[in-house]
Design a protein that fits this description.
By secondary structure, this protein is mainly alpha-helical. The protein has 2 domains: about 40 residues; about 120 residues, Lysozyme. About 60% of the residues lie in helices and about 0% in strands. The chain is globular. The N terminus is likely disordered.
Length: about 170
């Protein structure tokens, strides 16, 4: 190899090393920024978002929702909208069908939660401690109530994943 090729190769190697250092530094900076942006609010923050609202309860009470999966989802969406909890009909329906096939009395008796004495229940298979933490005022305080179950689960998913729409498996 000629000295010119060696110099060119050394320059390329030096340039490559500098680019690698810049890339690693850039990735580390981007990773730190992403981690800072994805910090999850505490359950206390979720509860603040779910503060009681007479207007929400009144608005939901004035509407007639069918006593069916469609009606429960629509009522939950109205409450979620008023409380600032993100989610769509499609996201709720998709997760409900995966978790319970639309059965508000579904109960998981075999997973780790059930083995520990706290079975997942309802349309979105919520455990009692999660329901208690993420319950939304204006809904029944009963885990298997369809609207309360959907709304609490959506509140939890918003706190943990940004939205129920971002949940594509057991959560």
């Amino acid at each position: 190899m000629s000295p010119t090729h060696i110099k060119a190769g050394a320059a390329r190697t030096g340039r490559t090393a500098r680019l690698r250092k810049l890339s690693v530094a850039g990735i580390a900076t981007a990773g730190a920024a992403a981690a800072a942006l994805t910090l999850v609010p505490s359950p206390a923050h979720a509860a603040e978002a779910a503060a009681p609202s007479a207007a929400v309860t009144k608005a939901a009470a004035e509407k007639n929702y069918p006593d069916s999966l469609d009606g429960w989802i629509r009522e939950s969406l109205d409450i979620m909208k008023a409380k600032g909890i993100p989610g769509t009909y499609e996201g709720l329906h998709r997760n409900i069908m995966r978790e319970s096939s639309g059965n508000p009395n579904a109960q998981n008796g075999w997973d780790v939660n059930a083995q520990n004495g706290t079975p997942s229940k309802g349309l979105l298979q919520v455990i009692q401690p999660t329901f208690d933490t993420y319950h939304v005022e204006g809904t029944a305080n009963e885990l298997t109530d369809p609207v309360a179950n959907i709304t609490a689960a959506a509140n939890y998913a918003a706190d943990r994943y940004g939205s129920i729409d971002n949940v594509d498996s057991a959560y």
